[in-house]
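Objective 1.3, modelling of assemblies. Example input:
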Amino acid sequence: MTPNSNYGRVYNFSAGPAVLPVPVLEQVRDELLCLPGVGSSVLEISHRSKAFDQILDQTLADLRTLLQIPEGYSIAFLQGGSRLQFSMIPMNLLRGTDKTAEYIVTGTWGKSALAEAKKEGATKVLWDGKEGNYSSLPNIDELGSSADAAYVHLTSNETIQGVQFAGDPALAAPVVCDCSSDFLSRPVDVSKYGLIYACAQKNAGPAGVTAVIIRDDLLARGSDDLPGYLLYRNHVDGKSCYNTPPTFAIYVMGLVIKWLINDIGGLDKMAAANQAKAGLLYSLIDQYPTVFQGHAEKGVRSMMNVTFRLPSDELQAEFLAAAKAANCTDLKGHRSVGGIRASIYNAMPTAGVETLASVMRDFAAKHA
Amino acid sequence: MTPNSNYGRVYNFSAGPAVLPVPVLEQVRDELLCLPGVGSSVLEISHRSKAFDQILDQTLADLRTLLQIPEGYSIAFLQGGSRLQFSMIPMNLLRGTDKTAEYIVTGTWGKSALAEAKKEGATKVLWDGKEGNYSSLPNIDELGSSADAAYVHLTSNETIQGVQFAGDPALAAPVVCDCSSDFLSRPVDVSKYGLIYACAQKNAGPAGVTAVIIRDDLLARGSDDLPGYLLYRNHVDGKSCYNTPPTFAIYVMGLVIKWLINDIGGLDKMAAANQAKAGLLYSLIDQYPTVFQGHAEKGVRSMMNVTFRLPSDELQAEFLAAAKAANCTDLKGHRSVGGIRASIYNAMPTAGVETLASVMRDFAAKHA
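Predicted structure (tokens):
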């Protein structure tokens, strides 16, 4: 075991739920029995209490500051994960229109989002990376997206395949972006999007809350006949308290956002740190390409999920054992694709990535 | 301030999210940085990890034991609160059939459930307590429920009005019961129901998870055309991991269930304690009826939410101030009905109820 002894914690490379900042966990622990000045745990306070309202307002304000969300956009904190968003998006923005929703399918999650949209209305696939096993990405400008589309859906980072768009698209139709696995990991020009959504359990908090940032004109689209919980404007009008929100998950997300602002210094700095961490692992993949067979093409590699294969199942088992001996866990690829996946979200410390890099170096020295 | 000094905690009479058992909070705090033997916080572990799978299996098994859930019923832990269940129930059990869903409307939540069902298919109101301002309950046997109904929906305890059915109904059609605010507060004969649902944030855990117990034959009813997240059998087939579940909320619910089994000694004992606590407050309402004007009729009083009014707004303000001085908080009635509501769920200690009773006695001595 390497000397990563604080609290007996390992370097957890899980794709999500995933590692959180230690100072955030410490604050949660310290306040767990009693929020200062409140007399109850955050787990016990009413979502309509003044104490929770302050937490919610602060979280909304800090998120707006951190992501530089412009005027004309609203935020809602929802339940059901990105999976429910796959349905809510076409239910609100497509159903009942005579328009077509366009999908850019760059991996497993884009494919799942499309499958749900097909139940709600007309869809068109602008691009599907299936033939290349989802290892590449298109140039969005060249896909012939229609200005009249209901919306264009894309996945900024495919968690399972490890491919990530580098910048923000510029399209005439509203762009709807699943940012689940790179939310708050880098700056985003929100004005380029109609709707951004992200489940929290990768970079932003625990499982159980999903952030939705929506351009206000799109709020008008959903019909009042939709199930109440599934209509975006109910949540925006109710300031995420249309019904009882996941109060604890919002509180933790609020602490993570504060950590990004105060401890990290904002999203530019976070992005630079993430690039440095990913760069270390990709440089080893490039140095030892016969041992570490990277999945994503060079220009579209994810800064969040580094995916590669070992030459054989035996070598993969040996590698995972060596990693575990060095306190690096949860490196197995998604059950649908296999291989190795190192998820290195915001809260994964540089020391963790350096430890994994050292394991890779030793392994390559032995097997290259 | 009365000497309720552990951790500076007050007696929190919130209707939900609500008070949790202190030993549960202490365990959550102690394990917050690192689950024993796991090396990560429960907030950070994958829902597909062995560690979470064990938590989930144990929680399912313990819930089955505690509620004596018979064979032929499945459990799912969902997001979206009871509010989303108001829609999922008719989407799965009514939509696409030529049947009618029957609703027994005994308060605010029954009314909200009905409103969502109307969007999905044919409904019939078997009874509505509006005329009596939702202070009474019907005899369910005498409402003429049809054996051919898609289902009969009722609310076992109306949190806002404070009325509660005493026993389990016996009907030919599947009974669907919103047990949100009395779940795990007393024994229930699950075999009398087709579907039982409860958001956790009253008796069973933090906000963010909703337990659904469903008779297996009803799982066949929903169409595959439904949005994936909204089809019950997806969650049952995926053992609540159809997508990432609210892992932390499930973990806390598991600890609460263990507390009910090991510390309390099961639901019979919990029910007896709850009756004693409620009895103390209702006896004062009966003793001083001009000061404490109880809302619910005597035979249908809730063991969970004790609702009453003071003779004037001034006296209400004085009462709330006296309660606060005695460390009793969150006693204001729901914003839609006003008055006083003392929510005394499982985890509200007897000492808290006794403190409130003492405030009531002093107040009555002054004003009766």
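The first strand of chain A starts at residue 11 and ends at 12.
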